[in-house]
Predict the structure.
Amino acid sequence: MSAAPPPVADGPLALVCGGGSLPLAVADHVAARGRRVLLFPIRGAAREADYAGREHTWVYVGQLGTLVRVARPLGCREVVLIGSLTRPSLWSIRPDWTSLKLMPRIAMAFRGGDNHLLSNIAKLVEEHGFTLRGAHEVAPEILAPEGPLGRLAPTDSDRADIALGLDYLAASGRFDIGQAAVVAGRHIVAVEAAEGTDGMLARVAALRAEGRIRAARGVLVKAPKPQQDRRFDLPSIGPKTVEAAGLAGLAGIAVIARETVVAEPAALAEAADRAGLFVAGVRGPQG
């Protein structure tokens, strides 16, 4: 067994921010506890307008030296990687001098799936004096609770689809290839690949429009990979996920409780009720 991580520190926290609203939600939860937050939005992923008026330093993918130069003198010893980010190619990295010296190891990190890449990048960050944290460790409020998040709950038929989806993801996750599937009528009709959850749901909507999915409704099921490092890339859902699930003709969304990040939970519940969908936190296969 791996050693337990050290207790969460009291000093400043560095957030390396991809796209979406989740990084700022985490920042606000942490700041509400009286802890200083240093934001490092990633160019090409984060929106400039979202960071106006907030303490931040822009970085490109691969600029580890900027993080070290800015955060460490301020007493920062913990880093969180949070937000959406399309997996970059090795050739799109814009290294600074610190990262340039690590390029052989960075290149090796790219020779594998997402979990392999992130785990190896995490090692490089920690070798430079930081402890890498999961966003849920510093802001536990972002995790999905067990049970319905809105007014509706899954039916017995939906629960059968959810169980099949969880079994599939437990098996496919060992190959590091996605965190989501759509199940309808106890058939897996779509699995998440490089296009991400929203792209998969758009594909389901198109297939349904073409008459190639005939089962009524269906469920989006999301779960972390069995071997996944829980410090980053936990499955996440938000109001846009609900909208995409509605356009795909689904009955609802099921996620693993306490292992899934929920962006804007109040807005998500409102969107689900408005669309007539359920969103539910469920126990995992071992729960």
